[in-house]
Design brief:
The structure is a single chain. The chain is of the alpha/beta class and 435 residues long. It has a domain at 73-107 and 220-399: Rossmann fold (3-Layer(aba) Sandwich), CATH 3.40.50. Helix content is 43%, strand content 17%. It is built from 20 helices and 14 strands. The strands form three sheets. The protein has a six-stranded mixed β-sheet, sandwiched between helices. The chain has a five-stranded parallel β-sheet with strand order 9-6-7-8-14, with helices on both faces. A three-stranded antiparallel β-sheet has the order 2-1-3. A hairpin with a 2-residue loop joins β4 (86-90) and β5 (93-97). The longest helix is centred in the last third of the chain and has 16 residues, at 356-371.
Length: 435
């Protein structure tokens, strides 16, 4: 498997190099030089396979020998050892629950797979690997648990002060061992900018072996395709063959993985990118003008991204052609008030409790279905996090019904360990150089 930079298609690197470098030197993002299409017979028979079996076949196809089959099978079986059930909440409306992993968020798929791939490629006696990750909420917790205790790897997590939920902050700051947390006095975009700048700083690159665990890393993106194929497998068992996916979208890695799955042959009728008021992408699709802007804090904090990194990957998959992209992608945005009303409505009508990110995806699917009332496709909206992570969002009567998982209760007794920094790069660089 070879990958190129979205800024230079003549550049070609092997998968291992792309995993450890995260970003090409020209500040693009790595993409496979060829997106393979899965065997149509495999696709039509997805309903016969388990999630790990699907994950292995998808990974094997796209990695194309970068990891031998036996080793790849072991990585998949170890990383993808939890379920992603599709729950029907009303006629042709289903929620894909992606929060059954250790950190209670969809990012467990990417973080666990990536950590095991990096551990596999690390060789004895090599320089310590320093993983830098910016998080707007759930990425940090998934990465922390994915890499906790991995030999010869150190993880540094940057998160925006006061802009993650209390449970998310506990998941970031209570691990110790090889996991460090930095509270940045700024936004997620500031955290992301610090990480990106560190990768291109000559002094830091000389002293450390830096890589990223954000969805800018291709080994985070690939495993996120697994649950799209698995959702379709579950639909096939119920007799559906057409699907519309509604995806909560912040940094656009999640829906980027869905579009990659589509390119690999998954038959998807339409993707819906559901954002909060940080609507850079919906505005672009509406006007043709891409205008990054400072992120705004919302109740769906993991989506508070004003300049989504993975958007360049999505445009690359479509050759920069906005018109072609719009044939398969529609985007919507919603504010906090609409989000809360959606949570209340689904709880009242269906007895189901959604986190605020999930609620935005439900709103987008509802709007699309209202506009396409005769369409018989199954609608699937992605639930990206367990509702217990957002206790301050819910009305008291709904919050009282949320069952707190045991791993969350265990976190509450731990000490919080975090360093506070401003958003200037020199302070962050000094912290890193101090070791």
């Amino acid at each position: 498997m070879k990958l190129y930079s979205t800024n230079n298609k003549e550049l070609r690197v092997p998968f291992k190099e792309a995993v450890f470098n995260s970003l090409p030197a020209d500040k693009g993002l790595y993409m496979p030089e060829h997106i393979p299409v899965l065997d149509p017979e495999f696709i039509s028979n997805l309903g016969k396979y388990t999630l790990p079996e699907i994950a292995f076949q998808v990974a094997r196809t796209i990695l194309n020998g970068a990891i031998p089959d036996n080793d790849l099978q072991a990585i998949v079986n170890d990383a993808i050892n939890f379920e992603a059930p599709l729950v029907e909440i009303s006629d042709r409306v289903n929620v894909l629950e992606l929060f059954h992993g250790p950190s209670l968020a969809f990012k467990d798929f990417g973080a666990r797979f990536m950590s095991r791939v990096m551990s596999y490629f690390l060789e004895a006696g090599e320089k310590q690997l320093d993983v830098l990750v910016a998080t707007s909420g759930d990425t940090g917790g998934a990465v922390a648990l994915g890499f906790l205790g991995v030999p010869n790897v150190r993880v540094t997590i940057l998160y925006p002060k006061g802009k993650v939920s209390p449970i998310q902050e506990l998941q970031l700051t209570t691990n110790g061992q090889n996991i460090r947390a930095i509270e940045i006095d700024g936004t997620f975009d500031d955290c992301q900018a610090l990480v990106k700048r560190a990768f291109n700083d000559p002094e830091l690159k000389e002293k450390f072996r830096l890589t990223s665990a954000n969805s800018i890393n291709i080994s985070r993106l690939i495993p996120q395709t697994f649950y799209y194929f698995n959702a379709y497998a579950q639909l096939l068992r119920r007799g559906f063959k057409e699907v519309v996916f509604s995806v909560p979208s912040g940094n656009f890695g999640n829906i980027g993985a869905g579009l990659l799955a589509w390119k690999m042959g998954l038959p998807v009728k339409q993707f819906l990118a559901a954002t909060n008021v940080n609507d850079t992408v919906p505005a672009f699709l509406r006007t043709g003008v891409y205008q990054a802007k400072p992120s705004v804090q919302t109740w769906s904090n993991a989506m508070d991204v004003g300049d989504p990194s993975n958007w360049v990957r999505i445009m690359d998959m479509f050759g920069g052609d906005r018109d072609e992209l719009q044939k398969v992608l529609t985007a919507y945005s919603y504010n906090d008030e609409e989000t809360l009303e959606a949570i209340k409505q689904v709880h009242t009508e269906n007895g189901y409790i959604m986190c605020p990110h999930t609620a935005i995806a439900w709103l987008a699917l509802k709007q699309w279905k209202n506009d396409h009332q005769a369409d018989e496709a199954a609608g699937v909206f992605l639930s990206t996090a367990h509702p217990c992570k957002f206790p301050d969002i819910f009305p008291e009567e709904i919050g009282a019904e949320i069952v707190i998982p045991a791993q969350v209760k265990e976190l509450e007794g731990r000490d919080r360990l975090a360093v506070s920094l401003g958003k200037d790069f020199e302070s962050f660089k000094s912290f890193l150089l101090a070791g």
